[in-house]
Amino acid sequence: MKYLVRSLKYFVFLCGLLLALIWIMTISYPEAAGIDYWAMVRAQLFSKEGVWLSVGVVLLAAAYPRFGFISSHIGGCDIVRDALRIDNAMMTSGFKLIEEGEGIRVYRAMGPILRLTMMFEDRIEVRAEEDGVVITGLRRQVVRIAIRLKGYMHNSRYEN
């Protein structure tokens, strides 16, 4: 069910982006002056290229949850001992702690604009494993946080 919801969110986002691009084309071309916006949308989407573009949007939205979310393993990090480092890495990336449990910490984006840019798929989960932690969430954010946390862990030897 989560896969379907993510896919539908991305489909709506891509459709909005497509309509915005058609609107920009409508207002930027002088020969399009006086043409109705929805007539332009119909002309663009029901042409041969528009049909292929629509198929591409559907396929991309269907595949997005598969490649848009990842898990990253950080070795040598303990979720209890290094909680402050994890919190700092998350805070500097724009996330705040919303839930803490046995071997798991859950974060959400701090601001509404950041949440909106991530289509409200801003949940980052840090789980304890026997040899480190696993960060799960939106690919772009997980990669940034993992790099930052690895740097914090590497530089921890200079503390004290």
Topology:
Blueprint: H1 2-28, H2 37-45, H3 48-68, E1 69-75, H4 83-92, E2 95-101, E3 104-109, H5 112-117, E4 124-129, E5 132-138, H6 139-154
Antiparallel strand pairs: 1-5, 2-3, 3-4, 4-5
Helix pairs in contact: 1-2, 1-3, 4-6
Morphology call: elongated
Task: Give, in spatial order, the strands making up the sheet with the most strands.
Answer: 1-5-4-3-2
CATH architecture assignment name of the largest domain:
2-Layer Sandwich
CATH class of the largest domain: Alpha Beta
Which regions contain 5 or more consecutive residues with pLDDT less than 50? Answer: none
- Please bin the fraction of helical residues: 55-70%
Strand portion = 15-25%
Helical segment count: 6
The description of the largest β-sheet is:
5 strands, antiparallel
> What distance separates the N and C termini?
48 Å
**Rg for CA atoms:** 21 Å
Q: How confident overall, as mean pLDDT? A: 86
